[in-house]
Specification:
- By secondary structure, this protein is α+β, with helices and mostly antiparallel strands.
- It has three domains: 94 residues; 49 residues; 56 residues, Nucleotide Exchange Factor Grpe, Chain A, domain 2.
- Helix content is 66%, strand content 14%.
- The chain is built from three helices and six strands; from the N terminus they run αααββββββ.
- The strands form two sheets. The protein has a three-stranded antiparallel β-sheet with strand order 1-4-5. A three-stranded mixed β-sheet has the order 2-6-3, with no helix packed on it.
């Protein structure tokens, strides 16, 4: 082997070593770059997880507050519903107690009238007693909103009157009008409580 050939072999070996070192260096750089990317991704994932946890914690807090408000409102509504139901029931059961109390003096007057006229033959005194008691009863009921319907000699009106029969009118001006009241009609607080049963002239 000549000196020239030996030198060539050494140059080739050096080039091979240099190429190998370069490849190795490139591989190391590539691995470092890949490791860097992985670490960066892990950092990003960690940050995203932390942000998601914060958002979830915030949403959970808002949910807890709203749920607490809902439960309080529901409880208050249930209490209100029970209370109003009880008040309505009490009003139905005891609504007539006030008027019943106001009618007790009238009942007392009837008891006294019966007791005092048990052995009396005085029809005028008995009649006068009943008139007084009737007047007292009317005043009590009027104070409660009851009003007697004035129907006599008024034009027949189906809104206020129920005709039980028709008879010939005693005069021309009473035709189509009420000529007799079989049962009085009443208003209660300006609303019809009972229609009057009337006889109409024809």
């Amino acid at each position: 082997m000549t000196s020239k050939d030996h030198t060539q072999e050494m140059d080739d070996a050096a080039a091979t070593n240099q190429a190998h070192e370069s490849t190795t260096s490139e591989n190391i750089d590539t691995e470092d770059a890949q490791n860097g990317e992985i670490n960066e991704k892990e950092d990003i994932n960690t940050d995203e997880t932390a942000e998601e946890s914060d958002v979830l914690a915030e949403l959970q807090g808002k949910y807890d507050v709203l749920n607490d408000k809902f439960l309080r409102l529901y409880s208050e509504f249930e209490n209100y519903r029970r209370r109003t139901s009880k008040e309505k029931r009490d009003a139905v059961l005891n609504g007539g107690s006030e008027i019943a109390k106001d009618l007790l003096p009238v009942l007392d007057d009837f008891d006294r009238a019966i007791a005092s006229n048990e052995n009396s033959d005085n029809a005028d005194a008995l009649k006068e007693g009943f008139i007084l008691i009737q007047g007292k009863l009317k005043r009590v009921l009027e104070a409660k909103g009851l009003k007697e319907m004035d129907s006599m000699a008024k034009p027949f009106d189906t809104e206020y009157h129920d005709a039980i029969t028709k008879i010939p009118a005693p005069s021309e001006e009473l035709k189509g009008k009420v000529i007799d009241v079989a049962e009085k009609g009443y208003f209660y607080n300006d609303k019809i409580l009972r229609h009057a049963k009337v006889v109409v002239g024809s």
